[in-house]
Amino acid sequence: MPLRFATHSKRVQKIAIEYGWQPSARYTNLRDVQDFDNVNFIDIDFKNYDFDKHLDAVKATKPHLTVAQDVFHLDELDRTLEQAEQLNKHADKVIIVPKALGFEGILESAIPRNYILGFSVPTKYGGTELNPKEFKRPVHLLGGRPDTQRELGNLMNIYSFDCNRFTLDAKFGDYFVGTKFVPHPIGGYDNCIKDSIKMINLLWENYSHESKI
């Protein structure tokens, strides 16, 4: 089963951890994980990215995974790889997120093999436009609907994913049942979170990224 992260509030993460998910936070919100013994994923604020603050957070937490700044244009790659090299000194693995369409046909050769590739799951707000078949190595899925993430698992080798879409629906009393969100029979935010996470785990129960390498 892939590593799973709900980069959200401490309340959500405490529930998620009970079901095998791992502590995570944006570099801007380390207070969400200050009570945990370890932090396994540090995410970024890609709209207002600050490399120095990101690096400081990674140095402080020593996560298993962190994600470098998205690469929207090929001429940004060298800068991102330089930053990733610094991040990699304090994290086990660094995720590079290629979004430039110019990566088509050269993705695997353009990004060194020691980095995991990140795929931003398409939503109405945007996402990775590259064909999933371009991704030949282990992949981290960033955001999106949980059923869409699982569908991508049939096309790519999924090492890990972060998902908190279900927290939005939980605010309205809805939870994830595998293919859609429906009203929870009992209700309550925590019940929606818990049962959504249980269903997401079930979707990935027999998945093995190692079998896809």
Concise synopsis of the structure shown:
By secondary structure, this protein is an alpha/beta fold. The chain is built from seven helices and ten strands. The mean pLDDT is 94.
SSE string, helices as H and strands as E: EHEEHEHEHEEHEHEEH
How much of the polypeptide forms β-strand, as a percent range? Answer: 15-25%
| Mass-distribution shape | globular
Helical residue percent? Answer: 25-40%
Query: For the terminal residues, how far apart are their CA atoms?
Result: 14 Å
Mean of all residue-level pLDDT scores: 94
- The strand order across the widest sheet is 1-8-7-6-5-4-3-2
Task: Indicate the radius of gyration in whole angstroms.
Answer: 17 Å
Number of helices: 7
Strand tally:
10
Class based on secondary structure composition and strand pairing: alpha/beta
**Weakly predicted, low-confidence segments:** none
Account of the protein in words:
- The protein is of the alpha/beta class and 213 residues long.
- 30% of the residues lie in helices and 17% in strands.
- It has helices spanning 10-18, 51-61, 77-87, 107-110, 146-152, 165-170, 189-203, and strands at residues 3-5, 24-26, 41-43, 65-67, 93-96, 116-120, 139-142, 158-162, 174-176, 181-183.
- An 8-stranded parallel beta sheet has the order 1-8-7-6-5-4-3-2. The chain has a two-stranded antiparallel sheet with strand order 9-10.
- β9 (174-176) and β10 (181-183) form a beta hairpin.
- The longest helix is centred in the last third of the chain and has 15 residues, at 189-203.
- 39% of the residues are buried.
- The model has no long low-confidence stretch (mean pLDDT 94).
